[in-house]
TrEMBL record:
This is SprT-like domain-containing protein Spartan. It comes from the Eukaryota. GO terms for cellular component: nucleus. It is found in: Nucleus. One of its GO terms (biological process) is DNA damage response. Residues 1-139 form the SprT-like domain. It comes from Xenopus tropicalis.
């Protein structure tokens, strides 16, 4: 995870009842933050677990009225500052250490946290090919990082 601090995966049975949840936190982002931010991110995800396990999820809206009410109760009861989204933009940018620059007229730079070159799988890529025509060349990666080669 490189844009979100956490995610909650729900397992539902055929009738839509919760049969289990799994929380995953972003170590890459949260290790750059205070412990309080990690705790509040975990509590955010635990609200999702609570709503799933009590069959109170808001249909079609992960952060709907039930989530917001529970969040407000937690914040008022425990003095926390659980929010719907984070503002850790500097941390998200800091982990984007794989850079590709376009050698065409646009000279765009694509920065990513993962070593994944821009490709036709991107929504914007076709328009880039048509309007610019340049190729993306890797220009930066984390220090000491050797590129893995696939065995054939």
């Amino acid at each position: 995870m490189t844009r979100s601090t956490g995610v909650c995966y729900h397992s539902l049975n055929k009738s839509g009842d919760c049969i289990g949840c799994r929380i995953r936190l972003s170590k890459k982002i949260l290790e750059l933050r205070r412990r309080k931010d990690m705790v509040e991110s975990l509590l955010h995800e635990m609200i999702h677990v609570l709503l799933c396990s009590t069959n109170n999820m808001d249909p079609g809206d992960d952060h709907g009225p039930n989530f917001r009410l529970t969040m407000e109760v937690f914040n008022n009861s425990f003095g926390t500052n659980i929010t719907i989204s984070h503002t850790f933009y500097e941390e998200v940018e800091a982990i984007k250490r794989h850079w590709w620059e376009c050698d065409g007229p646009c000279q765009n730079v694509v920065k990513r946290a993962t070593n994944r070159a821009p490709s036709s799988k991107e929504r914007w890529f076709r328009e880039h090919e048509q309007t610019c025509g340049g190729s993306f060349i890797k220009t930066s990666e984390p220090e000491g990082r050797a590129r893995k080669r696939r065995r054939t």
